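Our preliminary data section would be incomplete without showing what the modeling component actually yields. Below, a chain of 87 amino acids is followed by its predicted structure, encoded as tokens that our downstream tools consume directly.
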Amino acid sequence: NEICRLIRQDLFVNKENIDLKTPIQKSIYETNSLLLQNQGNITLIEYATFYGSIQIFKYLLNNKVELTESLWMYAVHGQNSEIIDIL
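Predicted structure:
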């Protein structure tokens, strides 16, 4: 999925006016067990947090995407101290 690739590289730009609350689509290429058990229900902000993609995280935050408790488990994996500080 192109959006997932861009998020992993912290390069996401919402050119297609995607609903920022849309869940990430399932992928046969996903191998992480945390993502697999929640596949189809992971939001863009959770995915960005999981990969420590701070620019995308801030973009989503600035566009009023809700911060939820579930972000903590993704932030631990992402190991981005700036995201953890924001949470």
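Helices lie at 2-8, 33-37, 44-50, 54-62, 71-78, 81-86. The two ends are 27 Å apart (CA to CA). Preliminary results of this kind motivate Aim 1 of the renewal.
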